[in-house]
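yo, Ionic transporter y4hA is done. seq:
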Amino acid sequence: MVVRTRLPRPHWTVVVPALAAVLLILTWHRALPVPVVVLVACALVGAVLAAVHHADVVAHRVGEPFGSLVLAVAVTVIEVSLIVTLMADGGPASAGLARDTVFAAVMITCNGIVGLSLLVGALRRRVAVFNPEGTGAAFAAVATVTTLSLVLPTFTTSTPGPRFSPPQLGFAAGSALILYGLFVTTQTVRHRRSFLPITTEGQVIDTEEHAEPPTARRAWTSLGLLLLSLVGVVGLAKTISPTIERGVASVGLPSSAVGVVIALLVLAPESIAAVRAALRDRVQTSLNLGLGSAMASIGLTIPAVSVASAWMSGPLLLGLGATHTVLLALTVAVSTLTVIPGRATPLQGAIHLTVLAAYLVLAISP
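structure:
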């Protein structure tokens, strides 16, 4: 008698990233009919959910704050590659792409992810508790690099327009890269405890006590699938961007709205992971994800586009306009007042989300 053994069925978190990658290859740089766009959108959502799952597995294996850093750096490296590619292909029309994308990422992370995490954590536990020392250091780095890279070009006089001269651009790129390196070292080595999650009772959580960590083999597999999922997220978002552009143009919205939509799609994995962490009373992990993503975005994008600008024909416009400068100043002021106490009520979360809503409204109706 022959006994047949059933092979284990592949989990959806394995199947979906592979399908998203195949779909990306088949649709890249092709005009897509509406049914295919719908299919791509479904695959995009699935890849986002798969990325969150595999990020959780990796984070559980390596612990905090390394887990938050893995997701933030992975999505940012892929996003930077996409930005540089688009700028190289877009010519002078893409001169402000890096600025718009980075600023959208800063506003979505510092107000959207942070605000939503504080609101969810405070509603669930009455008050959201986090470490003001680590969070304050992270936000100070984000505010400094953002101001040096995106605000100063508007006021410099060496070159016309909102752009740096070559020496100024070199300084901005170098300082962004150095501060990002110091931020990672501070977060993961020298002052790691300042970035560990804190419960509402004030207890620092160094390890998860209620679940066994995954094996090293499973963690490496999840890391590979995480990268594959993120390639699918960013690539499929780029694939459907022409459809989004046509939809935005058909309703009379400005072209800047397209960048906001793409940024929201790309940052979806961090957003979902941050909310899930807040629901588990790990608000510090949520803030690590939000501020870490903002720091990675600007700390890696500015040096990358600075190097790429050497062979691009058009100018590199980095300076923000007056409206965005005001929103950035408001974000810095509100975030400072939020971080200082180390505790937040639903009010602080709602304030951050209101600033994000103002940014989205002005992106639609400048």
